[in-house]
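seq:
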Amino acid sequence: SVLRSAPMRGTRRAFAAVAVLLLAAGCAAQGGGPGRDYTVRGQVRQLPDPATPGSGLYLMHEAIDDWVGRSGEVEGMDPMAMPFEVADGVSLEGIQVADVIEFTLHVDWEADVPVEITRIRELPAGTKLVFREAKPPGKS
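struct:
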């Protein structure tokens, strides 16, 4: 019985080690977890059209220096005007075209909706936005 249990213990250890390595590789491929959150500032260009599902909130946003693309690499994102999906439960009440806002952008490349706004707050009148090129950390 001692001879039988020793190989079993070794098999269990090997299986556990392989499982841990596979789990770690999976997490690394996904950027270490269920996505990333970015706090971004921008100006509202167009509100979603209730008659057009998925029309999104059209914003001109500042650069996102630490933006991580689908490749998992930090690429940065230059300022641009683009539509964003707004997550269920996020209210646009009181938000109007030309408002300057701060929003949380949740990005999970594996999700059904890979990029969506999960929080919005209006910034004080007169807040100046800065539209400069992205400066990804570690890149020249």
